[in-house]
Amino acid sequence: MALYVLRRLGLFAVGLFITSIIVFVVLRVLPGDVAQVIGGIKATPEQVADIRVRYGLDQPLIVQYFDWFGGLLHGDLGRSLITNSPIQNELAEKLAVTLPLCVLGIVVAVVIGIPLGVYAALRHDTRFGQLVGYIAQAAAAVPVLWTGLLLILLVGKGVGLVSILPSQGFPLDGWAEPGKAIAALILPALTIGIVEGAALLRFTRSAVLDAMGQDYIRTAMSRGLTHTQAVLQHGVPNASLSVLSVIGLQIASLIGGTVVIETLFALPGLGSKLVTDVGNRDLISVQGTIVVLTALVLFIGLAIDIAHRVIDPRQRRVTS
Amino acid sequence: MTSQRALAVSYRPERSRARRTLVPAWLSRTWRRPHGAFGLVVVSIVLLAAAVSLFWTPFPLLQANTDQGWLPPSPQHLLGTDQIGRDTFSWLLAGSRTTVLVAAAATALAAVIGILLGTVSASLAPRLAEPIVVLVDIVVAFPVLLIAMLLATTFGGSILVVWVAVGIGAGVNLARIVRSEITRINASDYILASRAAGTGSFSRLLQHVLPNVAPLLAVQLSVTAGVAILAESGLTFLGYGASTTEASWGRVLADAQKYISVAPASVIWPGIVIGLTVLAINLLGDAIGEALDPRLQSGGKTDGD
Amino acid sequence: MSDSTTPTGDGPANQNPPDGTTVGEGPTPTSSVDDTLVGKEKKRRTRRWGIPAVLAAVVVVVAVVVTVVVVNNNTAPQAAAVDTDATLTVGLVLEPTSLDIRTQSGAALEQALIGNVYEGLVARSVDGSGDALPALATAWKVSDDSLSYTFTIASGVTFSNGTAVTAKTAAESIQSVIDNQYLGSEYLGSVASVEATSDTELVITLTTPYPDLLWALGGRAGLVLDTSATNDLKTTAIGTGPFLLDSWKQGDSLTLTRNDGYWGEKAKVAKVVLRYITDTNAAANALKAGDIDALAPIDATLAKTVDTAAFSLTKGLASDKFVLAFNNAKSPLSDIRVRQAIRYAIDHAAIVTARGDADALLGGPIPEGDPGYEDLTGLYPHDVAKAKSLLAEAGYADGLTLTLTVPSFYGDVLPNLLTSQLAEVGITLKTDSVEFATWLQDVYTNKDFELSLVDHAESHDFGSWANPDYYFGFDNAEVQSLFAQSQVAKTEEESAKLLAQAAKIVSQEAAADWLINFRTVTAVRNGVNGFPVNEINSRLDLGSVSVDKAAS
């Protein structure tokens, strides 16, 4: 087991190293550079060349890469080319919006998805149970942008039928005003919650349906439990491991994938930052952000795999 | 926002290990299921709309009249007009072309990447397969959005970007799923039996393994097609997808989004069209999957999804 | 909404919005301005709020929502005393990329900092007259040969770091622009020397007359910075203006606080928050929801949805020219008939309508308010038949396919409309919507394009048409000679006359098409007075804006 964990950790490190190279190279292929963006449409070629020297962009690529990678090893992501502030700080500032948004979104998704998913599985042979399944499928089939727009049109301030929730933007002082910050996150979190919740519902439903077909349910029922009791007491716990994995993956992909939500709701989060930085060709900032994102996702994947092996003894046998 | 959805649906109940070949009747079995019929009908309508729009739209697409911006639906303009007075219904009709193209192309690319990487990494010796697995893991960790962003930045936003980004993103996800499914099937009794019988590994793959992966593939590829359509709308909204001259549903939605306070109703139509189509494709995929699934072939129960 | 040319930002005279809209009662949008900015002395605690707190707070969300609603329903009593403790929150669209006024280009940066944090020798008037206004130089005189400018520098002025401003510091600041090729130096080519002749007197000597000098000094070139300071200009600013730079949250907002040691008339609000909201919808909603006091500018189409009982809308001059650039140096646009055909094919009135009826028509390279402006809109009236025959003459009777390379942030309305209009004359327009950085490389630097669409926001930028190396690729000897003469003319009038002549040639030669001259629509909530109207995209003088006590 320890060997397995060590091995996975090694692969994790190798993965990150490869990622850093891929990201660095791919970003250098992009047309345009930060010096031109800074200079704008009035700058003469001489002025642009000047800026390039001033920002250290005239060094050979290999030097730039090892400068950056050396910093990474010390946990230093470097400084933004444009604002010169440490990228860690900028990331922390943006994550203060994106992480709560993802967590809230997942909380909504779990609250919607899991109970309804279990219900839909238990009642899969009733009309209502089937209806829940169909609604979940429909909710997962519409663009997330559209879900968000409909919510804004329903309850968003300024445009909504009932003007009660801030439709876009984030309070200036951020979490110094928790009430306002939470209020600003309600609609975006609901949007995420509905979309992810629908996916989670369907997954939970089929996982529980699967568990319902297992022998141990029959065994439990033969010991006097009703079908529902047997499923809830034995089936659901058995399904929970894979459901948890899915939630983990959902969080992982949300962290880097909320950009549509952030753009629609004008939230100053990580996704918006990435888009801006790519636009400005602030490559140091972009590569730092991507490496951190990739590390998070790989780490969550690693954690899920290890959890699976610890909890589920069958897996240990199959792959060892 | 897309990959986890693919994963969420990837889960399928255990299938019977008994091998059956594909029967030509799978299509009629699909049709017999209510959700299969619904899927077939809607998908056919979209295909038909795409074909019709090649020759005819109620109004020429480029006909603009700035005095008639944001007209409400009327007998003349069934779904109203946009900011510069173009007919929304015509644009949605023409958008179905882009949708069909993007969904088909992305699914095909994902299928190629997924099946190739999946079977190769499942068939090779673990030591040789490991680099592929690690690479796949890394690419899976990249959000589709990021791939699209880099592509669009280099080559400009277009539906090509959606095609390649979704194809790669969904492809590597599929590779993982195919790999684990093949690993599972390889460990099953009948494969062990056929190995013992001396069947070559390649023909074993073709005859025994791939047909058993087929139901799962049907579901996964339908999910990919849906994801491609949804990704088109998201990426176009962000400016990485369809360019202004490419008629697409995402473009109609993105254009309407900018003026929700002026013409709130205009965002409804593209959303409904996209939602119905994606729903239909997913249901169709499920139905085909069930029709291909040996366990569910005789009187199998149809469920909500 | 009315056209207003009231000068702003130059005195306390403007107590009401220039269009005179005043409203007594009615619900004020909200008091959330206060809520948003409560606790200005409070430390930011962004990172201390962990996930547990977030989760706990979900529970009280309902309570919060109710509170917000209740607060919103407060109505304002009638009173008009100025609230000197007020915080003014202004919604803006484009955010500066960095704050380095020396190297970072863009109007957004000038808008935020010039006149508010930094001051120059002179300031630009924004009333369309093009006059220079006193700033750090309280007076100046020009020698008869137009080669020597003598400025009297205000005394008792200090930078916000305490350093005193003298004629010497001012001279050093301007000299450093020239020496380091900072942005703005391109206007100082004819400067022979910048000298402080006493503590309060600064003399600029020129090699040849330069009628635009005062205008140039009203921009970045004439800004007075403390050259001995070592602060990082990218994120901080030390100036002499009525406001101090408090903080900058990239992607979100820039906060200014009143400079209580300001040498001139002190600012009337304690704090200004510039909120950058790129999405026009989000911006309009923030205004309606009361999160911002003013939106500059508001999308003209969305402006029609604003409640005019609670907000006043003004329309202001802007030097922004939306230029449909032709690559004059490359076939097929090197053929004047093709360029002319495109100009005839475009229905400019329809463009104005599509953008919400606010913008002005523009027939040539010089916008209203700049020297050399004249109405050239009659040169190329909308004429589909003529466009078609010109195309046929040029050998494109069967049609022509052109690619339009456009930075993505200009939105889709213009490309969509151009595609439709050009299709009518047989031109198939393909749009390549690219990021600005890509545009800079492909179009601006490498000149690899056919048609391009960019908002040339700068005023006094006619020189691009006399520079064959600029991306327009327009090479006309007569224009170049007229422009050269205009740059060494002794008086502004003479210069303007020469520019007008040159501009007419540029337009006749169809060097480009000028789609529209942007007009900014500004929405300001009632109770906020003296908000700037004109040229708000490059100057936003907030020193004279006041907020009524009761309404805030």
Write the layout of secondary structure elements.
The complex is a heterotrimer of chains A (320), B (305) and C (552).
Chain A lengths: L1 H28 L4 H6 L5 H10 L6 H13 L13 H36 L4 H15 L2 H12 L22 H35 L2 H8 L4 H31 L1 H6 L5 H11 L2 H29 L1 H7 L1
Helix pairs in contact in A: 1-13, 5-6, 5-8, 5-10, 6-8, 7-8, 8-10, 9-10, 10-13, 12-13, 13-14
Chain B lengths: L2 H8 L15 H7 L1 H22 L32 H36 L2 H16 L2 H12 L3 H28 L2 H8 L4 H38 L10 H9 L10 H25 L13
Helix pairs in contact in B: 1-7, 1-9, 2-11, 3-4, 3-11, 4-5, 4-7, 4-9, 5-7, 6-7, 7-9, 9-10, 9-11, 10-11
Chain C lengths: L1 E2 L28 H6 L13 H9 L1 H12 L14 E6 L14 H7 L8 E3 L7 E3 L2 E6 L5 E6 L13 H13 L11 E6 L4 E6 L6 H5 L25 E7 L3 E6 L12 E6 L3 H9 L5 E5 L1 H4 L7 E6 L4 E6 L9 H10 L2 H7 L29 H10 L6 E8 L5 H12 L2 E8 L1 H10 L5 E6 L20 H11 L4 H17 L3 E6 L2 E6 L2 E2 L16 E2 L5
Parallel strand pairs in C: 1-13, 2-11, 2-12, 15-16, 15-17
Antiparallel strand pairs in C: 3-4, 5-6, 6-8, 7-8, 9-10, 10-11, 12-19, 13-19, 14-17, 14-18, 20-21
Characterize the structure shown.
The complex is a heterotrimer of chains A (320), B (305) and C (552). Chain A is an all-alpha fold. Chain A has helices at residues 2-29, 34-39, 45-54, 61-73, 87-122, 127-141, 144-155, 178-212, 215-222, 227-257, 259-264, 270-280, 283-311, 313-319. With 305 residues, chain B is mainly α. Chain B has helices spanning 3-10, 26-32, 34-55, 88-123, 126-141, 144-155, 159-186, 189-196, 201-238, 249-257, 268-292. Chain B starts with a helix and ends in a 13-residue tail after the last helix. Chain C is globular, with a radius of gyration of 25 Å. Classes of the chains: A mainly alpha (320), B mainly alpha (305), C alpha+beta (552). At the A-C interface, α2, α3, α5, α8 and α12 of A face α1, α2, α3, α7 and α13 of C.
Give the key terms.
A: 320 residues, mainly alpha, 2 domains, 14 helices, C: 552 residues, alpha+beta, 8-stranded mixed β-sheet, 5-stranded mixed β-sheet
Main β sheet profile of chain C: 8 strands, mixed
Work out the helix count of chain A.
14
> What spatial form of chain C do the alpha-carbon principal axes imply?
globular
The number of helices of chain C is 15
Give the H and E element order of chain A.
HHHHHHHHHHHHHH
Quaternary state of this entry equals heterotrimer
> Radius of gyration of chain A from the CA trace?
24 Å
CATH arch. level architecture of the largest domain in chain A: Orthogonal Bundle
Mean pLDDT figure of chain A = 86
Q: Which CATH class of the largest domain in chain A?
A: Mainly Alpha
Low-confidence segments of chain C, given as residue ranges, are 1-78
* Strand residue percentage of chain C: 15-25%
* Biggest interface found: A-C, 70 and 75 residues
Radius of gyration of chain C: 25 Å
Structural class call of chain C reads alpha+beta
Strand content of chain A: under 5%
Summarize model confidence as the mean pLDDT of chain C.
86
Do you know the CATH topology of the largest domain in chain A?
MetI-like fold
- Helicity of chain C, in percent? 25-40%
User: Please, how many domains of chain A?
Assistant: 2
CATH superfamily of the largest domain in chain A: MetI-like
